[in-house]
Amino acid sequence: MSKGNKLYKIFVYVALITLAVSILIPIAWVFLASIKENAEFYGNPWAMPKGFYFQNFVDAFEKANMGAYLINSFLVTFLALAILVVVALPAAYVLARFKFRGQGILNNLFMMGLFINVNYIVVPIFLMLLDGDNFLRNLTGNGFFLNNLFVLALIYAATALPFTIYLLSNYFRTLSSAYEEAAYIDGAGYFSTFIKVMVPLAKPSIITVILFNFLSFWNEYVIALTLITQDDKKTLPVGLMTLMTGQRAAANYGQMYAGLVIVMLPTLILYMMVQRQLTQGMTVGGNKE
Asked: Global pTM?
């Protein structure tokens, strides 16, 4: 190995180690701070906790209502993922494997959706839902669209469709048509071929989009803050901001960091569970024709 290659390799390792440390230290600090008693924060903030004070988590669940927010976030996230997968999988498959009139227009529309930041269209979405609620109240006396977790999940799924269809359709294009031809010869129809052959082959890519979208839905704040105003229907990020504001003012730092851990822990666990499949889905395709 030449001297230049050695220096480049050392530089890459130093950069990666520095990046890893800059990420791991804040995460470790939050976990350690979440088990400290409140009095410990007035001394050295970098000192190790004197014990395991799990009352912070109990107070976060009971006093700050984080348990209800956690359930709401799980409900919205998994409902949004279910809607997204059911809609995006067949749409991506059809766009990737079939030729029909208007296919190019649809592909271009989904590509355009990749460049639209959902935060820029929150206000129009809110105004449309508000008009729909006003219409329903005049008609039936009750609203439906605002403060509705199902509607929030539906909007999450709709805004994630461009990225999801783009990624899945590109993966389907890399799969050889020999799989489908073999299924057709065995007497399978289009739907059976899609469900029994193509979906299992696309499993790495499906896991990738599920993980990315799970992280996006779980941590989403702006849409949830705008569309959900009732306290009992708030999601975890919105509830966490409420907790942080209240506990910072009350100087209850332990509960605040416990709330941060409650938000982070599911995403860390999910990532560790599907890390291998995520890497495979991002780097491996099917056999080229």
From this structure: 0.83
